[in-house]
TrEMBL record:
InterPro entries: G_CP_dom, GTP-bd, GTP-bd_ortho_bundle_sf, GTP-bd_ribosome_bgen, GTPase_MTG1, P-loop_NTPase. Residues 12-180 form the CP-type G domain. It holds the Pfam family MMR_HSR1. Belongs to the TRAFAC class YlqF/YawG GTPase family. MTG1 subfamily. GTP binds at residues 132-137, 176. It comes from Lentilactobacillus buchneri subsp. silagei CD034. It comes from the Bacteria. GO terms for molecular function: GTP binding; GTPase activity. One of its GO terms (biological process) is translation. It is found in: Cytoplasm. The keyword GTP-binding applies. This is Ribosome biogenesis GTPase A. Keywords: Cytoplasm, GTP-binding, Nucleotide-binding.
Amino acid sequence: MAVTIQWFPGHMAKAIRQFEENLSLVDVVFEVIDARIPLTSQNPEIRRISADKPHLYIMTKRDLADPQLTNAWLQYFAEHNQPAIAIDAKTKFGINNVISVISPILRDKLQREQDKGMKKRPIRAISVGVPNVGKSTVLNRLVNRRAAQVGNRPGLTKGQQWLKSNDKLELLDTPGILWPKFSSQEVADKLALTGAIKESVYASDDIALFGLKQIRQLHPEGLKDRYHLTDDDLDLSDVDLLLQITKKVGMRDDYERGSNRIIQDFRAGKIGRFTLDDPETVSDDDQANN
């Protein structure tokens, strides 16, 4: 039986307090979410705290997500009057759309300031997102330099810092933040599979089994191609399939190493492009609380 995952270390509680304190300094919240889990990677605490601020969802890792579902999510957000863009931070695809999307929302506010005789200034934004969502890479692309630490493990951005993009945008960076309690094991499993949760917190075989179940449903051919499986292999139980893949990749019966291989292959897009959240199945409860 899978162990319930919860991960909310003290530095995240501190980061949420700092986020709330700094809201008065900014015009807009840039929430960076994972295009593979556009709903699950939304932080309900951030939405609750910043309800009165304009909000832009920046969907990262679109190169790893199902392109049809990425477009479906963009349409979903548009229908709910929620500004959102999808980008590939590695290639800068879509990164230049950030200013064009958010400027109309803030135009009246900035114009009122100028009408009062205040000096024209850049838009000020605070950037927030779950750990390892690619937020630092987005910020570095926006400011066109390696200002924030970039890596592939949760929690690299330790403190908050201002970054200047150009004369149109200033950014306040924050560490990756989760929330105190996940609403379901599925939410925790999706966050763990995509890399938002520290590896020491979960059992790798539990997450690999969850991933195999998702991939079977969405793209079984990806499993066959990646691990040279047969149709009979795909008829195995999830546990037996994990053991079979472990043998296929030369790890004999070391299912823990086999589990880590599956997880890393999923994250790197080596099995295929997957989106685990579907906008057609979103309920009001899902939207309100992850």
